[in-house]
Amino acid sequence: MNGECKLDYREADITHAERLKEEANVHFSAKRYADAIDFYSKAIAMCESSSTKPHNFAAYYANRSFAHSKTEAYGYALADATKAIQLDPKYLKGYYRRATAYMSLGKFKEALKDYEVVVKALPNDKDANRKYTECNKLVKRLAFEKAISVEDTKSVSEQIDIESMNIENDYSGPCLNDGKVTLEFMKELIKTYREQGKLHKKYAYKILLDVKKYLEKQPTLVHINIKSDEKFTVCGDIHGQFYDLLNIFELNGLPSDTNPYLFNGDFVDRGSFSVECIFTLFGFKLLFPDKFFMSRGNHESVTMNRMYGFEGEVKSKYSVEMANLFTEVYNWLPLAHCINRRVLVMHGGLFSKDNVTLKDIENIYRNRQPPEEGLMCDMLWSDPQDAPGRSPSKRGVGVQFGPDVTKSFVELNNLDYIIRSHEVKAKGYEEAHDSKCITVFSAPNYCDTMGNKGAFITLEGKCLKPKFTTYTAVSHPPVKPLMYANSLVNLFC
C-alpha cells in the first residue's frame, strides 16, 4: 500500500512538472523569457528531487537553454544544453541549443561540431544542413583570414589616402569645415541621418582617423572633473538604435561645453542604425573632446561585430576597409572613467579577484581585442548578482559579483559607487548592492522585442547623487534589428 502511494506521489510530481514546463512554453512564446526561465527552473527542480524522471527530461534543460539565449545568458544556455545532451546523447535539440550558445560566444569551431552531429543524424534535414553549411563557411573564412594575415603589415589607418577621395557633384550631405567637425556639421549630420541619408566616405574616414589619433593619447582610465553646479549625463547601451539616441538629445539637450555626456559602451550591433549612431557619437567626441566621453563595451570587438551586425552594416554602407578601421579605433577606446574620483563608470562590472585598484585599471594594456579572462575581460563582461561572493558568469565570459565584492571595491578605492551598463533592465536602470552598483541601459524596447524602457543618469558635481530619467522607444524607419547580422544569427534567433 505504501509503495503504491509513493508511486502515485512520484507520478503526481512528474505531471505537475510537465504542467510547469507547458506554462513556461506559453511564457516563452509570449517573449516573457524571464518568466519562462522561472517556470522551467521550477519544473526541473521538481524532477530533480524525484527518483523518477519524465521520459523527455532532456527537453526541460534544452528549453531553458533557449530561453537563456534569448536573455543573452549564454553561459547558462551552454550549461543547460550540455546537461540535456548528458541526459540523452541522442536528443538532437540539445546539440542545436548548444551550438546556438557556442555561436553567441564566438566559439564557432565548437558550434560546428554540434551542427555536424545533427547533420549526420538527419542528413535530409534542410534546416540542419543550412546551419551546418553557414557555420562551416564562417570557420573556413576565419581560418583563411588568419592564414593570410601578416603581423608587420601596415595598419588600415596608415594606408588610407583621404586626399584622393573626390566629393561627387551630386553629394548634398554635411561637409567638414576645413577638415574639422563643427556644431553646424553635427546638426546637419543628424538631419541627414534622420532622413536616412549618408555621410560621404571622405568625411567618414576623416572622422575615424581623427578620433583614433585623439584616443591613442588618452589613458585607459580617464578622470573627469565636473564642477559643483555642473550637470553630467551618463548613458548606457545604445546598440544601433539611432532614433532612440536622438530622443535622448531631445529630452536632455545636445552635447555641449555646458552639457557633458558619457556614453558607456555598446554603441553598435543588433540595431540596424549602428553606423549612424557611431558617427554621431564620434562627431561629438571631436567637437567637445573634454566634455564628451565614450567607454568601450564588449560589443566594440571583432567577434561581436561580425556576429551581430555592425561589420555587415559598415560593409553594406561603406567598405570592408572601413570595417577594419573601426576595429583599430575601438581598440583605443578607454575602458573606464572616474568622475571626481568618487564614481567609477565601466561597461560591464567588477573583477574575478580582490584588491583591484584604480591604478591597476590605469595599467591595463587596451590596444587589443578583449581577452577571455583578466581585468579587461571582467570590465567589459561582468554582471552583479544578489548573492554574496562570486559565481561563474551567466554569459560564459567574465564573472558575477555580489554586494560584498562591490562594497570592498568601493571602500578600497575611496569611491561612492560604481555605474555600469551591459544589461537590459525593465525600467532602464537598476540600483543594486545597497545602491553601490547602478546599472543604466539606454536602448528602449531592445531589439524591438524586449518592451523595456531606456534610461540615462544625470549627476550634479556637488553631491553626485544619481537622478534617473526614463523613456520609451520612439518609432523608426521599417528596418528590422539584426538586418546586417551574420546569417547564422538570424537562423538561430
Automatic annotation (TrEMBL):
Keywords: Hydrolase, Manganese, Metal-binding, Repeat, TPR repeat
Enzyme Commission number(s) from the entry: 3.1.3.16
GO MF annotation, one: metal ion binding
Keyword Repeat attributed: yes
Domain called Serine/threonine specific protein phosphatases: residue spans: 199-475
Top-rank taxon: Eukaryota
PANTHER family: SERINE/THREONINE-PROTEIN PHOSPHATASE 5-RELATED, SERINE_THREONINE-PROTEIN PHOSPHATASE 5
Protein name: protein-serine/threonine phosphatase
Higher taxonomy: Eukaryota, Metazoa, Ecdysozoa, Arthropoda, Hexapoda
